[in-house]
Design goal:
The complex is a heterodimer. Chain A is α/β, with parallel strands linked by helices. Chain A has an eight-stranded parallel β-barrel, surrounded by four helices. A two-stranded antiparallel sheet of chain A has the order 5-6. In chain A, strands 10-11 form a two-stranded antiparallel sheet. In chain A, a hairpin with a 2-residue loop joins strand 5 and strand 6. By secondary structure, chain B is mainly alpha-helical. Chain B has two domains: 107 residues, no CATH class; 151 residues, Outer Surface Protein A, domain 3. In chain B, a hairpin with a 2-residue loop joins strand 3 and strand 4. Chain B starts with a helix and ends in a 7-residue tail after the last strand. The relative contact order of chain B is 0.10. The chains are: A alpha/beta, B mainly alpha. At the A-B interface, helix 3, strand 5, strand 6, helix 5 and strand 11 of A face helix 1 and helix 3 of B.
């Protein structure tokens, strides 16, 4: 990819704490211009040819660095890569010049049917190789590195032979991609499938961690067993803040995003969460200095 | 050990309703594998239903949550999502309703769905610079009937046998939600998206057909003939199109095309 094209399709280096921007908050963001480091949107919501939401994001992008976070590429699926979908992601990159582009370590479709959910992969060498090969193809097609996010899970496979962090480390090494560390997902998995969240965070390759996500979850009792649902529908719980502090100590002051997708509060609440993350980041900066 | 494609095939079967196919490869850890799989089933269904609700809020309000969920469940069985982009989940919903509600007192729901889908797609269409009425004066007035109009990509022509716009308005968030007398007669709607957002206009049936033909590429003369639009109404309809910024170009006359 030419350096000019690369420069044209990349935004500034992200720093500090940002907020996930949903369309319900577009007008408030443009009106109030809150002091947050950056914003992130779901890429697929900006695939269209026109409309108010695209124009609003154009305006928001003038004032805020942007990250594009995709949910539909299904990089771990056994179906062929969806070239049309990738082309739409490329078009969004060219229009909005994001600083980061990310997807998930998951599969999403089978036999032409899309389940519109982030489905888990077994932690096997076969799956790591398959996922890494497709990530590398997509990075070539997009002309840039992408970050891959760890998934929240409601089950674990007997056929898994690697730990989750070994699996992601293998993917990073083979694909040359980055990692988006979702600390809430690590905590959710510690309850749902017995993941050692501390070992997970400590076991990830620091050089690959390019972004952190924080979010809320919901507790449910299913046949007497506690399960956490990754619904992004509440404030970041205290145990997740504790894990986040550990992640910053381990990996340094990584740009951090507050995700809130359901039961949306006022924008000021989201900004308040970002401000809290910013204080943790500043403390981590001070420690690193 | 099952291969990755085998695991995904079994998992997909579980999501479609056969969780036993997957249970053997899942650690229980205090919860039956089928219960764990059910969480994914519920998530996938919720994502599908949520997308349909966002595309058809008026229909959902009109029929109620319970009946809408039943329709969504049946629709999904016939038209599972074929795209990673959730916005397209509902594209076959009008046709599904036309098929399943035909001959029942609810067959008009298909027309309401068609209007809502027109709004949905209009809202995300490209917006192009518009021409003003004066641009028509640049054409050879003797052969103006052979000229064609390029119209905004957001424009949708929605015929209906019932007062569908009245139903749509009554079931907006600020509407009273009261049932509309469907015997009042048809309404034919032009849907477009401008700088101020979605615009819905009722027009007479011949005008809608005239505009639909223009949109399909017919020249002014052929569209007039085929639509039964009275000649004396032509100026009014053209005025509406230009005033609403719906005309984006003029197709050249044959002698200008070379």
């Amino acid at each position: 990819m030419s350096s000019t094209a690369e420069a044209n399709s990349s935004g500034p280096v992200l720093a500090g704490a940002g907020i996930g921007l949903r369309s319900a908050h577009h007008q408030a963001l443009l009106r109030e211009r809150p002091r947050v480091g950056w914003i992130e949107v779901h890429t697929e919501n900006y695939f269209h040819d026109g409309g108010p939401h695209l124009r609003e994001l154009d305006r928001a992008r003038e004032d805020y660095p942007l990250s594009l976070h995709g949910v539909g590429m299904g990089l771990g699926s056994s179906e062929p890569l969806d070239r049309d979908h990738i082309a739409r992601v490329k078009r969004a990159i060219d229009r909005f010049r994001p600083s980061l582009v990310s997807e998930h370590a998951c599969w999403t479709c089978h036999d032409g049917e899309h389940f519109n959910d982030l489905l888990p992969l077994p932690y096997t060498d076969e799956a790591a190789t398959h996922l890494a090969r497709r990530i590398a193809q997509v990075q070539d097609l997009l002309g840039r590195q992408i970050l891959i996010e760890n998934l929240s899970c409601y089950l674990s496979f007997r056929s898994s032979r690697l730990t989750e962090w070994e699996f992601l480390g293998a993917v990073v090494e083979r694909a040359g991609c980055g990692l988006l560390l979702d600390v809430n997902n690590a905590y959710v998995n510690s309850v749902n499938v017995g993941l050692d969240a501390v070992a997970f965070i400590n076991g990830l390759p620091t050089a690959a961690v390019g972004e952190i996500h924080l979010a809320g979850h919901a507790r449910q009792i299913v046949n007497g067993r506690e399960i956490l649902l990754d619904d992004h529908g509440s404030q970041v719980p205290e145990p997740v803040w504790d894990l986040y502090e550990l992640a910053l100590r381990r990996h340094g002051p990584i740009p951090t995003l507050i995700e809130w997708d359901t039961h949306l509060p006022e924008l000021s609440v989201l900004v308040g969460e970002a401000n809290r993350a910013q204080r943790y980041l500043e403390a981590a900066h001070a420690l690193a200095a | 050990m099952p291969s990755l494609p085998e695991i995904q095939s079994s998992f997909a079967a579980a999501l479609r309703g056969s969780p036993a196919s997957m249970a053997e490869d899942i650690n229980a850890d205090g919860l039956e594998p089928t219960d764990r799989l059910r969480i994914y089933q519920n998530n996938s269904r919720a994502m599908f239903d949520g997308a349909l609700e966002r595309s058809y809020p008026v229909l959902r309000r009109r029929v109620g949550d319970e009946y809408f969920q039943r329709l969504a469940h049946e629709y999904r069985a016939r038209h599972p999502s074929r795209s990673a982009d959730l916005h397209w989940v509902g594209q076959h919903f009008p046709d599904y309703l036309a098929d399943t509600q035909a001959g029942t007192p609810y067959e008009w729901l298909a027309e309401l769905a068609a209007l809502e889908w027109a709004c949905e797609t209009s809202l995300v269409a490209e917006s192009r610079p518009s021409l003003d009425l004066a641009s028509l004066a640049t054409l050879d007035q003797q052969a103006i009937g052979q000229a064609g109009l390029e119209l905004q990509p957001s424009l949708r022509c929605v015929p209906s046998s019932v007062p569908i716009l009245d139903v749509w308005r009554a079931n907006q968030p600020d509407g009273d939600g009261q049932p509309v007398d469907l015997s009042k007669g048809p309404q034919h709607i032009l849907v477009s998206c401008g700088a101020a957002g979605l615009e819905l206009r009722e027009v007479p049936a011949p005008a809608l057909e005239f505009i639909r033909l223009l949109q399909a590429g017919a020249n002014l003369g052929d569209a007039l003939d085929a639509s039964d639009l009275p000649a004396e109404s032509l100026v009014e309809v053209l005025g509406l199109l230009f005033k609403a910024d719906l005309v984006t170009g003029l197709r050249p006359l044959p002698e200008q095309a070379a």
